[in-house]
Specification:
8 strands; three-stranded antiparallel β-sheet; 269 residues
Amino acid sequence: MGSIYSEFLSALGLSGLSNLLSAVVVLLICLVIIKIVCKITDRLLVRARHLDETVRRFLRTAIKIALWVLAVIVVAGTLGIPTASLVTVVGVAGLALSLSLQNTLSNLFSGISLLFLRLFVVGDYVEIAGNTGTVQEIGLFYTTINTPDRRTVSIPNSDVMGASVVNHSREPRRRLGFTYSADYEDATEDVTAALLEATGQDARVLSDPAPSVFLSAFQDSTVEYTLYVWCKTEDYWPVYHGMNALVRESFSRHGVHMSYNHLNVHLVP
């Protein structure tokens, strides 16, 4: 009777059944560990308030994928499958995938770097790789900006990381510089007074730092003056476009002539 029972268990493959049961137990343990690790990761990511939500989602996904790959390898080892070969296959597949997606991965890691470094945020007015505009989105692969003429430009993140980035919104105030030409016959005091009066006509021009005027150059037919004013960053373009009209009106009130290049010919009898 005992021999028959042994033969029956052998027929069922007791060793294989034992491995299968062990694999199921290991899988359940892996599921519990994955759940615990994911919860801990979520708590840590929530506390890291400086991280962008896109980075949080990417890290959650990457950690979960890594845990599942590790779980599959452990379960495969429990079933008696050679894990060395499996790891080799995964490594080769990963290498082939990375080579085929080289540019994409470069943009991906550049995007993660941008989100960590925070060179700019959504809403900033920036200059990137010859493009100027307001940042609309910082994605994992592309950075999108809206230009002043309402064009949407998507720049690969690898190009952003390799280019000089000028962030005009980082500081709360910006300085504007204007150059105006006046006639040689106009007194410097009159030109200076006219320019400073023009700055007082725009309430968006800051009084601290105060506007300043400099005689900057003597040209062939004109004298050049440079006007510097400060304003809030969000008022930059309104002040930039409105100052010229104010200066023209102020010059007219003060009798200052906005000169241009010309040639005076004197006839001597």
